[in-house]
Design a protein that fits this description.
By secondary structure, the protein is an alpha+beta fold. The protein is about 15% helix and about 30% strand. The protein has helices at about 20-30, 80-90, 160-175, 220-225; strands at about 15-20, 45-50, 50-60, 60-70, 70-75, 75-80, 95-100, 105-110, 125-130, 185, 195-200, 205-210. It is globular, with a radius of gyration of 18 Å.
Length: about 230
């Protein structure tokens, strides 16, 4: 991935630095909750490694997990405010450098891919202070299958149309409209969560999404997790 070849800014003491796909961050932020009474899920859970990253977001009715390759120095895991970061990013940005020690992100655009090695010496378009959110993030892994199911959608599951369409939009936001990427859909049985996934091999990104069936209970996702 070209956006993972961004040179890291240098410091007197080494910082944990990560260059990740900014479009993946913006897309995931759209799935974070807007409910300030449940602050922890208004954030993006970010797990950053030397050569890969994982971003998790949920609003209790939808869950997305985006994984991709990156360039990093060290490891870090935290939850950061989704809105404040996404508001500062632009669709034209093609690099995002996260300094996990300083809790600052640098974003911008390189006009020519060959200029990426110069970014560490140039001024970034914007530097963003990352607001860390303390607390226990939901046990999201319990909602994902251990292995990818067959792409068969069982009849009888009623899904909110806007939630379902947002799954396709998220994939499009990452890859653009000129490329057609299949989104696989599966549901174990009626009135169970719908599981969607897309493997964007050319971008080295894997996306997993969960959309809850339509119910009036605001705690649907949490109750489902507790039921195990």
């Amino acid at each position: 991935m070209s956006d993972c070849r961004v040179p890291m800014p240098t410091y007197e003491k080494p910082h944990a630095m990560f260059a990740i796909n900014p479009k993946a961050v913006m897309a995931a932020a759209g799935w974070a909750s807007k409910d300030l009474s449940r602050q922890i899920i208004t954030g993006l859970k970010m797990d950053l490694f030397c050569d890969s990253y994982r971003i998790v977001a949920t609003d209790s009715y939808r869950l997305v997990v985006i994984e991709g390759k990156c360039q990093g120095t060290g490891e870090a895991s935290f939850v950061i405010d989704a809105k404040s970061l996404a508001d500062q990013l632009k669709k034209s940005d093609n690099y995002l450098i996260i300094d996990a020690d300083a809790m600052v992100a640098h974003a911008g655009k390189a006009n020519v891919p060959g200029d990426l090695e110069l970014l560490s010496r140039n001024e970034h378009r914007v530097s963003i202070g990352l607001r860390k959110i303390d607390g226990k993030y939901p046990e999201w892994k319990k909602l994902l299958p251990e292995s990818l199911p067959k792409a068969v959608n069982k009849d009888g599951t009623s899904i909110n149309a806007s939630y379902l369409s947002s799954a396709g939009k998220l994939v499009t936001d990452i890859i653009g409209t000129r490329v057609s990427a299949p989104v696989h859909v599966s549901s174990e049985s009626p009135n169970k969560p719908m599981y969607l996934w897309a493997n964007l091999n050319e971008l080295a990104i894997a996306i997993q999404m969960v959309v809850m069936p339509t119910r009036q209970d605001e705690e649907t996702l949490n109750n489902y997790i507790k039921e195990g």
